[in-house]
Amino acid sequence: xxxxxxxxxxxxxxxxxxxxxxxxxxxxxxxxxxxxxxxxxxxxxxxxxxxxxxxxxxxxxxxxxxxxxxxxxxxxxxxxxxxxxxxxxxxxxxxxxxxxxxxxxxxxxxxxxxxxxxxxxxxxxxxxxxxxxxxxxxxxxxxxxxxxxxxxxxx
Length: 155
Hints:
Radius of gyration: 22 Å
Largest sheet: 2 strands, antiparallel
Strand order of the largest sheet: 1-2
Distance between the termini: 37 Å
C-alpha cells in the first residue's frame, strides 16, 4: 500500500548522540480521526513537582469551605478528589504545552545551528550546536521516560 497520497508534511528533526537526523511524516488520515473523552490516569510524577503540590495544598482549605455542608466523609472525599483531578488536568495541560513549546524552540535552534555549521564549521558555530544539543537532551529524556513508563518496561 502506498502512503504517498496521505503524507501532508515532512520535516527533518535533530537526533541526539548521532550525526544523523530523524525524518518525520505527518499523515492526513491520522488527523481525520475523531477523538473523544479518553481514560484518565493520575500521573504520579507530579507528586515530585513542588509547584503542583503547593497548588493543591493551598486550595484544600477552599475546598473544605466549599463543601462544609457535606456530612458524609465518603462523599466529601470524592468531592475533594474531583477538585484535585480538575486542578491536575489543567496544570498538566499547561505544563505539557510549555514543554512542547520549549522542545519545538530547541529543535528549531538545533536546525539553525546545524545549517550554520554546514555553511561555516567554525568553532563558534560548533559550540552553539553543542549547546543547543545539550539543552535538547533533558527535554528528549523526559519523552523517553514517559515512553518507558507507558510501556511498563523495568529498567
